[in-house]
Amino acid sequence: MKKLLCVxxxxxxxxxxxxxxxxxxxxxxxIGASFPLTGNMAPIGNAVHRALSAxxxxxxxxxxxxxxxxxxxxxxxxxxxxxxxVANKFIYGNKVDVIISFFSGAGRIIAPMAAKTQTLxxxxxxxxxxxxxxxxxxxxxxxxxxxxxxxxxxxxxxIKNVDLVYQNIGAADQLLEPxxxxxxxxxxxxxxxxxxxxxxxxxxxxxKLKNSKSDAVFIYAFEPESDILTxxxxxxxxxxxxxxxxxxxxxxxxxxxxGYYNIGSFVTPNNMKIAWGLDGQNAAYSAYLYDTGHIxxxxxxxxxxxxxxxxxxxxxxxxxxxxxxxxxxxKYRLDSRGQFHSDGLTTIVKDGVxxxxxx
Length: 359
Known about the structure:
Helix 3 (about 40-60) packs parallel to helix 11, helix 4 packs parallel to helix 5 (about 105-115) and helix 6 crosses helix 7 (about 170-185). It is built from twelve helices and 15 strands. The chain has about 350 residues and is of the alpha/beta class. Strand 3, helix 5 (about 105-115) and strand 4 form a beta-alpha-beta unit. The chain has two domains: about 1-140 and about 270-340, Response regulator (Rossmann fold), CATH 3.40.50.2300; about 145-265, Response regulator (Rossmann fold, 3-Layer(aba) Sandwich). The strands form two sheets. It has an eight-stranded mixed β-sheet with strand order 2-1-3-4-5-13-12-11, sandwiched between helices. The chain has helices spanning about 1-10, 15-20, 40-60, 80-95, 105-115, 145-155, 170-185, 205-210, 225-235, 270-275, 285-300, 310-320; strands at about 30-35, 70-75, 100, 120-125, 135-140, 160-165, 190-195, 215-220, 240-245, 260-265, 325, 330-335, 340, 345-350, 355.
């Protein structure tokens, strides 16, 4: 409880934390983080910013640490041109030691720059393209883990036939094609439905789902289309098991999804949301950024070096030699390519809140 209250105090003064006063005059490790702080993804961008800031503030509050961690945050709006400009500013202007890039789109832009300049890059994603050098790392639930959680859910619910509804965006094919193979192996029948971003009329699609022979509907879609599709489920009274492939952490209105499942990434516990000043807010994915902050600090504090601070090569070697990690999300395994692996989680919306499904 004492630790939690300490974190809460730091989280509530993040503006002061971001100033990065260094009263003990320790050697400085510079960390540049790029998030969407405005626009459609701003609620999530600001939430992960606060979680990361809390982790760094916690590290700087530890007087036994050898280094001071200076966090610099920029708003990339999830715009590729802005992301590129921010990365150049961090690398060549601020001369950061570490960059944290949010979502695979940013990771793909920053990864080659990090490799070229030997700057450590921690990306939030699971895109193989990002893992192109020993300086690039990723921390997020992989597609393999997400699909494994889905198969476990289907078997646990006794689902023999499922409709797969996938939006044509992002990693849809990266997830869908392997899932189809897993479903074949599990002898679960499936029918695939696809739709494009920007669609607003799902009456025909939902009518097909309602009249199909499936036991359940599994959806990969994000806002605003996911909300529109789900409202049509309610209008047509679709009485089947409804589950989403890691889409619900994106929404700001969980009440719309009451009784529906989410299969995918870890959901930040309420006590941590309170500690990070995020009570009542969408704190999707915040735990991953909090853990990433502590993983970075742990690496710098424990990497042997004769330099003022450890070099990128030294930190990379230390990270890859350790392999087993733990945090708020639980147990992580770091593979030789720099991808952190964790387990998928099944949650359900009850009383307007995502809650763990007890197995």
